[in-house]
Please model this.
Amino acid sequence: MRTISRCALFVLTLVAGPPVTFAQPLVCHAVQRGDTASKLAQRITGDARNKYQPWFQLVDSATRSVPKSQYDRIRPGWRACINKPPVEQRTAHAEVVVAEAMTRSFGAASNTPPVAVASRAIRSIDVTIVWLGVATVVPLLGWQILEGYLSRRKATLIVMRHFAYRFVREFERPLIHQHAAEHPLKSRLRLSPHRTRFDILLAPGKGRRYPNLSDHRKNVEYDVARVLRVLNDESFVCGPLSVQAEWVVVPFQFRVAPKQPGVACISSL
Model:
């Protein structure tokens, strides 16, 4: 809701803001004892260097502009004046427009709900300009949402791949024979990041018959449970094993919250 409120204020500012002109009303401040041009610019604008800006001006007691070449010596009765910043004027003007619209609405019907008052105020504004404001704000919000989603998706993929790599390495470790050139098993990874799910597919390597569920289901289930104990990562919940062609499918669900104690891969039978 805070994001929507900020966007609404931004749109109203765009809508209600008058064109910027060079004849802005002056806001003047009295010069105090010990003031210098730099001190005045720092106090009024927040930056001492703004004393050189054309919108910052010292005026004498007769309200005549003082040349900037004479700013090194300030005399009593002078004032420091600035033009109102355009953004400040647009925001203030927007607030006045909304306040006047709400006042008129409440004057016509004091029991009118605030939502109806806001609706009337919005209807009094040029629809074309409103749509221009919406067309500016909505893409920015959409980009922020998309960027957050892509960042979370990328992080999820990295975590899934790292876990799958560790799982396969630990599963095949007891199967590796010394000086063997071929890997004892083949593996694949099937990812579904939007569902935070993935499958690790295992199949016997060249000249091997393990792992497979048709002849060695209990052994495969034992090895999967062993690997899970070694990895000891409770963010991954294992589902029932299944067969797809030559592959043993080991499904996982990734979640941030830890799983219940004792949960492990179970047989699909």
About this structure: The first strand starts at residue 26 and ends at 30. The helical segments are 2-16, 37-45, 86-108, 114-123, 127-172, 213-231.
